[in-house]
């Protein structure tokens, strides 16, 4: 099995994006993903899977079957769906899942709830800065329209 084939086809920006997602899921910072971390990531993304499904998904990504998902495995398996061009409807649907009070915005506390589910604790200041990066109209919340 040849690894890193797909990584070579990605731009450095895409690799960086995948790396950021990977690091976010890697809650203990060990440099690889355990089954527990994968499950947490799925829960945080609003994906409901049974234990069995989570294990199957894990096995499908863990190409060398060493019980851990390394970054190159993650990139190899995830890249295609990650960079698939999403339709507007798909983006809006994903966004809605995080918009708990359904007001069309992701507020700081909603973003914090997602990250907490991923096992990450960010300060309010860090959350504010993350939002500021994508917050075009400067109202302190992420707008659905701004994302699509
Ligand atoms: Ca880990
Ligand atoms: Ca592995
Ligand atoms: Ca909201």
TrEMBL record:
Pfam families reported in the protein's UniProt record: EF-hand_7
Repeat among keywords: yes
InterPro entries per UniProt: CALM/Myosin/TropC-like, EF-hand-dom_pair, EF_Hand_1_Ca_BS, EF_hand_dom
Entries under SUPFAM superfamilies matching the protein: EF-hand
UniProt entry keywords in alphabetical sequence: Calcium, Repeat
An example Gene Ontology CC term for this record: myosin II complex
Lyase recorded as keyword: no
Molecular-function GO terms, alphabetical: calcium ion binding
All copies of domain EF-hand, residue ranges: 13-48, 49-84, 86-121, 122-148
PROSITE patterns assigned: EF_HAND_1, EF_HAND_2
PANTHER family linked: CALMODULIN LIKE 3, MYOSIN LIGHT CHAIN 1, 3
Protein name as catalogued: EF-hand domain-containing protein
């Amino acid at each position: 099995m040849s690894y890193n084939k797909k990584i070579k086809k990605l731009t450095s920006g895409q690799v960086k994006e995948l790396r950021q997602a990977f690091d976010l899921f890697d809650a203990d910072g060990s440099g690889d993903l355990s089954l527990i971390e994968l499950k947490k990531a799925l829960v945080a993304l609003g994906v409901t899977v049974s234990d069995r499904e989570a294990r199957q998904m894990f096995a499908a990504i863990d190409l060398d079957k060493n019980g851990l998902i390394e970054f190159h495995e993650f990139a190899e398996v995830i890249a295609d769906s990650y960079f698939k061009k999403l339709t507007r409807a798909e983006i809006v649907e994903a966004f809605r899942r995080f918009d708990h009070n359904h007001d069309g915005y992701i507020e700081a506390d909603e973003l914090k709830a997602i990250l907490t589910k991923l096992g990450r604790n960010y300060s309010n200041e860090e959350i504010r800065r993350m939002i500021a990066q994508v917050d075009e109209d400067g109202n302190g919340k992420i707008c659905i329209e701004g994302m699509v």
